[in-house]
Amino acid sequence: MSSQWQSLVSQKIYLATQLARSARNQASTTEREACIQGAIELSLRARQLLLALVARYHQDKHAMPSSLAELSTLIADTPDAEVLGELSRTPDSWWHHLDQLELSQNQPPKQQKNVSEDNVIAISAATGPDRSAEGLLDTLAAMKTLVNDLGERHAEW
């Protein structure tokens, strides 16, 4: 049963990876943005399904935790809860990157000020999560590694 969930999570990661790769080859800004946003949404869905997968690894066949806190309540004091908790607290982890991307996806774009010679004071780098195809591919690769590690750890003999 849990192997079906692992396949579903892997499928979402694979499809998100394909979209992120496709974004690099898009000539149109709109098509590139559609690929990036699609990859982000599939990544977020994969992370949500990962929570259900871990619950199933711990014999909770009907749980659909909506957050890491809910999952931690279900499987407290397990190595899986510790690994996921550590990922969520680590600023440069893929989990944290997805948190940032989710936040940016749920906010309207920031208004850009009109630039003219009269109002240019300084140049600053844009803030926010890394929305590049390469950044997404790194995050997706790390997710895939964790899913594979969990699958090996919980493999039925």
Structure description:
By secondary structure, this protein is mainly alpha-helical. It has helices at 2-24, 29-57, 68-74, 79-89, 94-105, 133-153. The longest helix has 29 residues, at 29-57. The protein starts with a helix and ends with a helix. 27% of the residues are buried. The model has no long low-confidence stretch (mean pLDDT 90).
Could you write a compact summary of the structure shown?
By secondary structure, this protein is mainly α. 66% of the residues lie in helices and 0% in strands.
Topology of this structure?
Blueprint: H1 2-24, H2 29-57, H3 68-74, H4 79-89, H5 94-105, H6 133-153
Helix pairs in contact: 1-2, 1-6, 2-5, 2-6, 5-6
> Structural class, judged by helices and strands?
mainly alpha
How many H/I helices?
Answer: 6
Element pattern in H and E: HHHHHH
Over all CA atoms, what is the radius of gyration? 18 Å
Keywords:
single chain, 157 residues, mainly alpha, 66% helix
